[in-house]
Structure prediction request, 232 residues.
Amino acid sequence: MHKQILFLLALLLTVQLSAQERGDKHLGSWHMYFGTNKISDRLSLHTEAQLRYYENGKNFNQLLLRTGLNYHIAGNAIATLGYGHITTDGTFEDFEGETDTREHRIFEQFILKNKVWELNFEHRYRLEQRFIDFGDRKDTQHRARYRIQVTLPLTDIFFLNFYDEIFLNLQDEVFGQNRLYGAIGVNITDNLSTQIGYLKNHFPSANFDRLQIGVFYNPDLRNLFKGNREKS
Prediction:
């Protein structure tokens, strides 16, 4: 009888510890930078860095670095070819002997924009080829993403931003995740803005609540590149 009680107590303790290790039980945070840097009338550079935490500002989850070359087909259409490097700690707590997952990612992207009333719509279509190193094995995965984003200007300075994005795996289980986001933004200058918002990240087996803090800086570098060409 005593052995059974001890076994049940040990089992309950194990379940409790496992629950404490789940990152979806905490409000995490994503700290983000995005840039679109014009280098010619048709071309721009995409620059991006994201630091993600399981808890608000602590307990590292993921570092994402992404860049790409944008081709501006028209004022409302952009095609992109890019690369990303992602380091992920898949556990909530730090455990001895755990290794991070590292990923090299190639992506192709197409963005369409349109306006209805005061609402600015953006449709983003993306394909990803993911080369993932799990430490003891490597895998190649393919994924499609679609995001619809709506921005509503409140004044010349303040605006609201919302999006929903679905991730579809092109192998195994089709549904990967869905991200629902809402934020308030501030235009600091013509090419600098910031947003603070809330993200609901839904996976088949978990739901994550994340605070997002983003900085968007889009300097025009055409004069710089033109000057360098003239000097050469």
In short: The chain has two helices and eleven strands.
